[in-house]
Amino acid sequence: MHEFQTEVLSYITDPVNLLMLALPESVTKHEMRDYQRITCLIPAKLRQAKAQLDGVIKDISKKGCRCVLKVVKGQTNRLRLEDEIELSCSFPGIADEQQTTGVIRDINAGREGIDIGIEFDEIAWWVPPYE
């Protein structure tokens, strides 16, 4: 979230509502997440019901991640909000494969694939920063 103070210079309502704001003197950024997200590209396997899907984790925190799943022509998206999902990956710097479970909280379909946000059921100890 970004916070700033400014003044409204003008506004219009036609054809759409539009505010013209003065340039603020300062902008303060507030992080609303409990744990910082780390940008990454880590291959992952996701299992939902009996289907196994290959994907890439594009960012991760101790409480969740965002994955991109490749779309195969002719295959329909069976993922739904609130679906339970299992995720496994080889996390850099850790010898064994890591596994966790979670719930799908966000789904966006695009040309490159299906982008899903997963909230983990438990805090993933293997995601930095380590305590």
First-residue to last-residue Cα separation = 26 Å
- What is the rounded Rg? 20 Å
> Assembly state here?
single chain
What profile does the largest beta sheet have? Answer: 6 strands, antiparallel, barrel
* Overall pLDDT: 88
Helix content: under 10%
Relative strand content: over 45%
- By secondary-structure content and strand pairing, the structural class works out as mainly beta
Order of helices and strands: EEEEEEEEEE
Give the helix tally.
0
Envelope shape: extended
Please give the order of strands in the largest beta sheet.
Answer: 5-6-7-10-9-8
Low-confidence stretches: none
What does it look like?
By secondary structure, this protein is mainly β. Helix content is 0%, strand content 52%. It has strands at residues 2-3, 8-12, 18-21, 28-29, 38-48, 51-61, 64-70, 84-89, 98-109, 113-120. A six-stranded antiparallel beta barrel has the order 5-6-7-10-9-8. Strand 9 (98-109) and strand 10 form a beta hairpin. The model has no long low-confidence stretch (mean pLDDT 88).
